[in-house]
Amino acid sequence: MSRGSEAARHSGPGYRDATVADITVTATGGRPDEAAFRVEVRDGATTTTHEVTVPGELVASLGWDRGGEELVRESFEFLVAREPATSILRRFSLDVIGGYFPEYSAEIRRRRRDRGG
After folding, report:
1. Among 21, 6, 37, which Cα is nearest to 81's?
2. What is the pTM of this model?
3. pLDDT in tens, 32-80
4. Which one of 4, 40, 41, 110 has the lowest number of neighbouring Cβ atoms within 10 Å?
């Protein structure tokens, strides 16, 4: 999700293993129509920190009924599988991910179904 970097987009066999990264999500508040989270991604010796907002309408459109923290974690697992954490924007709203990765919505819906959410 680096701005202007098409090289950061990966697909197929080039996807990274997201399980190597340790993702910590902490709720930081927000507004009635938008939740806010701090996300820390540890991948080997590298740690990145991200401030993320989650619009309520995105949660509804994805059919995600398990809570914002889980949606953020799944979204970061999705991202880390496709690019290094150092390429992920430091501050963003989850609804921009689909602009970088068109498969995001379908993949997140699939993950929700697969995990019983």
Report:
1. 21
2. 0.81
3. 889 999 999 998 899 999 999 999 889 888 888 767 899 999 999 999 9
4. 4
Taking the C-alpha atoms of residue 105 and residue 46, their distance in angstroms, rounded to an integer, is: 28
Q: Quick one: which H or E segment has residue 42?
A: strand 34-43
pLDDT of residue 9: 38
Within 10 A of 58 (CB to CB), how many other CB atoms are there?
23
- The 3-state DSSP class for residue 25 equals strand
> Token digits for 42?
């540890």
Q: What angle do CA 82, 92, 70 make, to 5 degrees?
A: 65
Residues 41/85, Cβ–Cβ less than 8 Å: yes
